[in-house]
Amino acid sequence: MYCNKPRLLKLAVAGVFLLTIAYVKPRAQTAQTKNPLQPTEINLALGLDHFDAHCASCHGRDGKAATEKGRAVRATDLTSEKLQAKSDAELFRAISRGVRGTAMPAFAKTHKPTEIWQIILFLRKLPTLTPDERVKLESAVPEGARHKRCRRLSKRKSQRNPSTSTKPPVSPPGRSTITLSRLRRPVR
Ligand code: HEC
User: Fold this and answer.
1) Is there an atom of ligand 1 within 6 Å of 72 CB?
2) What domains does the chain contain, in order, with CATH numbers?
3) What is the value of pTM for the model shown?
4) Distance set, CA 56 to CA 3, 39, 77, 104, 176 (Å)
5) Using a 6 Å cutoff on CB, does residue 56 contact ligand 1?
6) How far does residue 70's CA lie from ligand 1's centre (Å)?
7) What is the pLDDT of residues 4-61, one digit of tens each?
């Protein structure tokens, strides 16, 4: 009888080990596929800007797809409970790859993952977005990142750099004041 004890112990250890792998691994994966971005005003504003430029034609500015084109292509109501019940990872996949056999295009080739995550942050906000909040977000889009502007100025470079283009409005005044105050300070 006592000969079996070490074997039982080994089995128990192996069992615990396998159970740990079975439970921990899927959890780690879902954690990874959650939106890595925070719903800050700037992220939501950039998401809104992408949405208006690339999605609203079919899904409507309010996401309900109640436009003529939206109905014609049978676009999904993005504010519906069914759609909102999907995970961030599922939305990311659908937006990146598109939906085969439907009018839903794939955006992975033209958009960086960060831009798609920003769109998803905005999609999560969409069902409760008030007109006032929309106006506020619209005005929070950095000048250089606005789609219409980019396209008018240069078609080739458009949509590329929303993150770098957030810098110009902030840094130049800051830098110049630092330089000025440094110049005014007496040299020791
Ligand atoms: C040319 C029209 C068109 C454009 C532009 C478009 N969509 Fe769609 N979208 C559709 C259609 C049609 C469906 C329904 C697909 C189906 O039947 O499953 C859909 C479905 C979806 C779904 C649901 C996918 C699912 O898993 O059920 C999401 C999310 C979505 N679109 C997001 C977007 C976003 C975000 C953009 C812009 C970046 C966008 N769409 C641009 C037509 C469009």
Assistant:
1) no
2) 38-141 (1.10.760)
3) 0.70
4) 71, 20, 11, 12, 40
5) no
6) 10
7) 677 777 877 776 666 655 655 554 444 447 999 999 999 999 999 999 999 999 999 9
